[in-house]
Design brief:
The chain is an alpha+beta fold. It is 25% helix and 33% strand. The two termini are 16 Å apart.
């Protein structure tokens, strides 16, 4: 069983370029492998995706120079909080001065 959040948009202040100091929108994708948790239809036994989103918001509120560090910190935080079998975190942003749709960093635990 997987619990997933795809495309959570949050405004943050991450980056090293002067134009990134004003902040920008970041997109978060989080996937947790949780085994059978929640299959019994009891929320108290499940990983509540609302709580996962709250962890993303908490980490996003901090300031990071690199989205690699942001993704790694978030993967660690989700892993410590929910103890999934595996977590994959992807952070995307529209890069300043690059002709691409998004750049991204992905971190996995374990």
């Amino acid at each position: 069983m997987k619990v997933e959040i795809v495309g959570l948009e949050l405004f943050g202040f991450h980056g090293v370029l002067p134009e990134e100091e004003v902040g920008q929108t970041f997109l978060y994708d989080v996937s947790l492998e949780v085994g059978d948790r929640g299959t019994n239809d009891q929320i108290e036994d499940a990983v509540d995706y609302r709580e996962v989103a709250n962890v993303v918001r908490e980490v996003n509120a901090r300031r990071f120079n690199l989205i690699e560090a942001l993704a790694t910190t978030l993967a660690d935080a989700v892993y410590e909080r929910f103890h999934p079998e595996r977590v994959v975190v992807r952070v995307r942003k529209r890069p300043a001065a690059m002709p691409v749709e998004y750049t991204a960093a992905t971190a996995e635990r374990p």
